[in-house]
Design a protein that fits this description.
CATH topology: Structural Genomics Hypothetical 15.5 Kd Protein In mrcA-pckA Intergenic Region, Chain A
Number of helices: 2
Shape: globular
Structural class: mainly beta
Largest sheet: 8 strands, antiparallel
Order of helices and strands: EEEHEEHEEE
CATH superfamily: MM3350-like
Helix content: under 10%
Strand content: 25-35%
CATH class: Alpha Beta
Number of domains: 1
Distance between the termini: 40 Å
Length: 168
């Protein structure tokens, strides 16, 4: 089992009582790719979807440098989804959000999108290169005052290369 912090650093307890926190365990798999890669990550349930997206990209060794969204529909990049959360909804664009019924990701907590074990969504990252990931909530755990933090807890397969070298 891998227990690798995605953000580094340690937290000193030094006699302070740390409140129990709820952590979600997600299984994330790359879709429609030549390589099979899966990561399980733990993240505090009260974090935002923006933080979850950051953790997912880091878990696969990607740069967190493109817009993204979470969608209920797995077909056609989530474009037909009835439920969606995307970075575009948080951006102040002159023309407004392209899909006003979707919520943003910077203030929406993970618990709003994933309510029960087995809930699944499509994580669509980089609307140019179209990276698609299946995300499933596998387990809900209490932190038990042990200083748990966002981390990869299981890794299977080699992650795809986000920016492969150009072919000549």
């Amino acid at each position: 089992m891998v227990n690798m912090s995605l953000y580094g650093g340690t937290r000193k307890n030094e006699g302070r009582k740390i409140k129990n926190r709820t952590f979600y365990i997600f299984e994330i798999a790359v879709l429609d790719c030549d390589v099979k890669a899966m990561r399980k990550i733990q993240i505090e349930a009260e974090k935002t979807l923006y933080k979850l997206a950051d953790a997912i990209t880091k878990a696969f060794g990607f740069f967190f440098d493109h817009p993204f969204g979470f969608y209920s529909d797995f077909e056609r990049g989530g474009s037909d989804s009835k439920i969606g959360f995307e970075l575009f909804a948080d951006l102040e664009l002159d023309e407004g959000p392209s899909r006003p019924h979707f919520k943003g990701v910077e203030k929406v907590k993970i618990t709003e999108a994933f309510k029960t074990v087995g809930d699944r969504m499509l994580f669509f990252f980089d609307y140019g290169d179209n990276w698609e990931f299946s995300i499933e909530l596998k387990e809900i755990r209490d932190g038990e005052n042990q200083g748990m933090k966002t981390a990869v807890i299981e890794s299977t397969g080699t992650a795809p290369i986000q920016y492969p070298p150009c072919e000549r």
